[in-house]
């Protein structure tokens, strides 16, 4: 054994103690850590011949990089839709690395049982029937990829074509219809060889990001006879957290032949609260469904769930058969159902946090984040410096500076806000207008954080104006 590796093997207790101390310090300082720091350009490290060993590597890393870690897991990082990591999720995630299990097959390790239990608890949290199977993937983009891959297999099957076996050639493009799809839907279509251009965006309801059902019906009617399609419904858009009417879309299934994929990356958490559950009524009609875990479930990156009611079709697409692996059988292993073969035990942090906080814990977190969004919205409405550009339905506040600023002005303002270190928000375009988004999806955020952030948001706007 290389002497440095042998030394580290003997020092593992000390290495873990140092790591623990580092993590404790980081979390202790987190509320004060500047959010969204700009990364420093520096000479990259070169591959050493004789390595530093784990302890010195940690010291070297901290000296070099600790100032450029953002507080993105902290309470005032409101960019994109960014979750934190609950204490229990963090504990579970650490143990994933220590245990280093590979939950890909069907037997041999508790990892598979725990993944199935986590999926079953999540099904309950989101009010899904047991007809849904599910698996963990690396993020909502991959969950959308899996859902569309199964939908593609289904659509081609309607035309007696097996894409998994025969490929796409000889098959006409599969129409994909959606109102306000997330950018990752286009990306998934590109990866699947379905083509970004085949996405047909459907007219939205006026002043909404929800699809106009009449327009959707017309688009389905306009398809060639017997042409199967995929409809991507959106449950929680990133700007205004708008929801397609899933019941109305599901009803269209009686007349038209389409696969319903629902992207509920963070909007799915509406199901956790009686205040918001009506927004996802009809979720159980999805053929495939995406819900992110590293957003509102507050587990560390990278984690999301894909659910489907068509596990046999999923296995047609993803099965991975070889003599040394277990046969597909009645209860196919995860390597027959997901893009990866070997994979990280992503389910464990989710299992820990679900066991630790339960449905009541998630209801409280979702409702608190939404209350905080309303609090920020009330400050914005009362201020002469800003205006709301979209109603606040759940956890995202979409607003702008007064006087219709262009995107350069908005970005300059956001850069100045970020430079205060107090709060991080991102730019967007809503209804053709440049705007600002503040998204609440972290378990740590409280009203005190909104007060603190608001001081910076308002102060910079005043300075900016003069
Ligand atoms: C965040 C998000 C995605 C992509 O999620 P990743 O986890 O970053 O891959 C897809 N759809 C919606 C609606 C999202 O909010």
UniProtKB/TrEMBL annotation:
Native source organism of the sequence: Herpetosiphon gulosus
SUPFAM superfamilies per UniProt: PLP-dependent transferases
Pfam families referenced in this protein's UniProt entry, alphabetically: Pyridoxal_deC
Membrane-crossing segments per the record: none
Cofactor(s) it depends on: pyridoxal 5'-phosphate
InterPro entries referenced in this protein's UniProt entry, alphabetically: Aromatic_deC (IPR010977), PyrdxlP-dep_de-COase (IPR002129), PyrdxlP-dep_Trfase (IPR015424), PyrdxlP-dep_Trfase_major (IPR015421), PyrdxlP-dep_Trfase_small (IPR015422)
The keyword Ribosomal protein is assigned to this record: no
Entry similarity comment: Belongs to the group II decarboxylase family.
Protein name per the record: Aspartate aminotransferase family protein
Gene3D superfamilies (UniProt xref): Aspartate Aminotransferase, domain 1 (3.90.1150.10), Type I PLP-dependent aspartate aminotransferase-like (Major domain) (3.40.640.10)
Origin: domain of life: Bacteria
Keywords (A to Z) from UniProt: Decarboxylase, Lyase, Pyridoxal phosphate
């Amino acid at each position: 054994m290389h002497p440095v590796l042998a030394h580290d093997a003997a020092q593992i207790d000390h290495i873990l103690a140092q790591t623990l101390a580092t993590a404790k310090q980081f979390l202790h300082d987190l509320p004060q850590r500047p959010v969204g720091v700009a990364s420093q350009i520096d000479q990259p490290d070169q591959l050493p011949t004789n390595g530093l060993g784990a302890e010195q590597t940690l010291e070297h890393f901290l000296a070099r990089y600790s100032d450029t870690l953002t507080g993105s897991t902290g309470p005032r990082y409101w960019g994109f839709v960014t979750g934190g990591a609950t204490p229990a999720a963090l504990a579970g995630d650490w143990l994933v690395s220590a245990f280093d299990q590979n939950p890909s097959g069907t037997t041999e390790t508790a990892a598979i049982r725990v993944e199935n239990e986590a999926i079953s608890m999540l099904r309950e949290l989101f009010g899904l029937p047991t007809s849904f199977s599910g698996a963990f993937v690396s993020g909502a983009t991959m969950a959308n990829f899996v859902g569309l891959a199964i939908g593609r297999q289904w659509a081609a099957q309607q035309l007696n074509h097996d894409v998994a076996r025969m490929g796409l050639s000889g098959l006409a493009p599969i129409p994909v219809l959606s109102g306000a799809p997330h950018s990752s839907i286009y990306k998934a279509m590109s990866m699947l060889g379905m083509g970004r251009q085949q996405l047909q965006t459907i007219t939205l309801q006026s002043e909404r990001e929800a699809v106009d059902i009449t327009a959707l019906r017309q688009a389905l009617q306009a398809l060639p006879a017997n042409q199967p399609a995929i409809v991507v419904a959106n449950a929680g858009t990133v700007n205004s957290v708008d929801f397609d009417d899933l019941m109305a879309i599901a009803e269209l299934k009686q007349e038209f032949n389409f696969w319903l994929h629902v992207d509920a990356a963070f909007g799915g958490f509406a199901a956790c609260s009686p205040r918001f559950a009506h927004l996802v009524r009809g979720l159980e009609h999805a053929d495939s469904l995406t819900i992110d875990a590293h957003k509102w479930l507050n587990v560390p990156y990278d984690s999301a769930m894909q659910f489907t009611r068509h596990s046999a079709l999923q296995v047609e697409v993803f099965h991975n058969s070889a003599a040394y692996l277990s046969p597909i059988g009645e209860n196919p292993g995860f390597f027959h159902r997901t893009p990866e073969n070997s994979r990280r035990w992503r389910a464990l942090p989710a299992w820990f946090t679900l066991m630790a906080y339960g449905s009541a814990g998630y209801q409280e977190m979702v409702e608190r984040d939404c209350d905080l969004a309303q609090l920020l919205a009330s400050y914005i409405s009362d201020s002469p410096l800003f205006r709301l550009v979209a109603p606040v339905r759940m956890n995202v506040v979409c607003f702008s500076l007064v006087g219709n600023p262009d995107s350069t002005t908005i970005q300059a303002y956001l850069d100045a806000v970020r430079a205060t270190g107090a709060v991080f928000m991102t730019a967007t375009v809503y209804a053709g207008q440049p705007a600002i988004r503040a998204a609440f999806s972290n378990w740590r955020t409280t009203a005190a954080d909104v007060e603190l952030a608001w001081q910076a948001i308002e102060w910079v706007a005043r300075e900016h104006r003069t």
